[in-house]
Amino acid sequence: MSDILGAKELAAMLGCARTQVYRLVKAGKLPAGFHLGTELRWTRESILNWARERERLQAGPVIRGYQKRTGK
Fold first, then answer.
1. Which residue has better confidence, 70 or 28?
2. Which of 4, 19, 24, 72 is the Cys-Cys partner for 30 at CB 3.0 to 4.6 Å?
């Protein structure tokens, strides 16, 4: 397994289309990566760090003592 990912490998890793990878980069929602020749590349570690950070931010604060309302 390579530590450098192309758009095709990154798309497979994220479970999306290769064109979606480019859309996400253009929108600033993915790490910008770097050019190797004319192709964009990403390090596996930068993508994993990005995913961990997104997961952490989306998890939000832990609310203790939360009880689901039943509507009764």
1. 28
2. 24
Rounded Cα distance, 32 and 37, in Å: 15
CA distance 69 to 50: 35
Tokens 């095709």 map to which residue? 8
| Prediction pTM value | 0.75
40 domain-assigned: yes
Residues 6+ apart with CB under 8 A from 66: none
How many domains is the chain partitioned into structurally? 1
From the list 60, 51, 57, the residue with the least C-alpha distance to 16 is 51
Q: The domain containing residue 39 runs over which residues?
A: 4-58
